[in-house]
Specification:
With about 250 residues, the chain is an alpha/beta fold. The protein has nine helices and eleven strands. The strands form two sheets. A nine-stranded mixed beta sheet has the order 5-4-1-6-10-7-11-9-8, with helices on both faces. A two-stranded antiparallel sheet has the order 2-3. The chain is globular, with a radius of gyration of 17 Å. The C terminus is likely disordered.
Length: about 250
């Protein structure tokens, strides 16, 4: 008997108070605010409804002005996971959607195919959370602590079962290293459990939120994709995103 079809929803957390690039959700990229570019990529994935969960009314207005759906959430959430959990209760209180895809609001160049790929591991009922990674091809990234690595056991040609996430160079020895991409697909119950847990020891040490789930015994599977999307954290990142989207079809929307 086949597993029931998944019913995903995409939620995009966005906040105005980023330290290195304040106000970045509204930064112009190819003629529209960055958060609108992210919303467009999420819509193009075509896996379910898409909402932006914002901490500021200006973000909500910008998304709605471009035909999107957005909801205002509390400004004091410690993480995007907490923000989308609140938003989920507001936009889907009846629980129609059983998978929640968290697409970060600073990924304007995310490939819609990667968003679609993120839910594939959840076809296995024992998986609580699914995420993405890409093989590291640049030597300098292997030792860069800002490049988070996932250590996992291969369970298919393009999938790992996550054992650990780290900023260190790991695992040791010959073989590929994988760059973790911070996009998550949660089962609805797993998201609720995750945000109810206190920060864990290893989470605090590595400054990686996903370790909280692993330390609590939750299963995370990782789908391997071809490329890492550009995360916009600095003015230089913003200029790169503008160049990418101005040059490609996405920039002409």
């Amino acid at each position: 008997m086949s597993a029931p079809a998944l019913r995903p929803m995409i939620l995009i957390p966005a906040r105005m108070t980023a330290t290195r690039l304040p106000g970045k959700p509204l930064a112009d990229i190819a003629g529209v605010p960055m958060i609108v570019q992210v919303w467009r990529r999420a819509r193009e994935a075509d896996i379910g409804p898409v909402y932006v969960a914002a901490d500021d009314a200006a973000i909500v207005a910008a998304v709605r002005d471009h035909g999107g759906e957005a909801i205002l959430t509390r400004p004091d959430h410690p993480s995007g996971s907490d923000r989308i959990h609140e938003a989920l209760g507001l936009v889907d209180p009846d629980g129609r959607h059983d998978v929640i895809v968290n697409v970060q609001g600073d990924l304007p160049t995310i490939d819609p195919a990667a968003v679609r790929a993120s839910i594939a591991p959840l076809a296995e009922p024992s998986v609580d959370i699914a995420t993405l990674a890409a093989e590291i091809v640049r030597e300098e990234e292997k030792t860069n602590p800002n490049v988070v690595k996932v250590v996992g056991s291969p369970i298919g040609e393009s999938r790992l079962r996550a054992l650990y996430f780290t900023r260190a160079t790991a695992p040791h020895g010959d073989g590929p290293l994988f760059h973790h991409i911070g996009l998550y697909a949660y089962r609805r119950a797993a998201l609720g459990r995750f945000v109810s847990l206190p920060p864990s020891v290893l989470e605090r040490r590595e400054k990686l939120e996903q370790l909280r789930a692993l330390e609590a015994g939750m299963r995370i599977d990782v789908e391997i994709v071809a490329t890492v999307p550009l995360g916009v954290d600095t003015p230089d990142d913003l200029e790169r995103a503008r160049t990418i989207l101005a040059a490609g079809p996405a920039g002409n929307q």
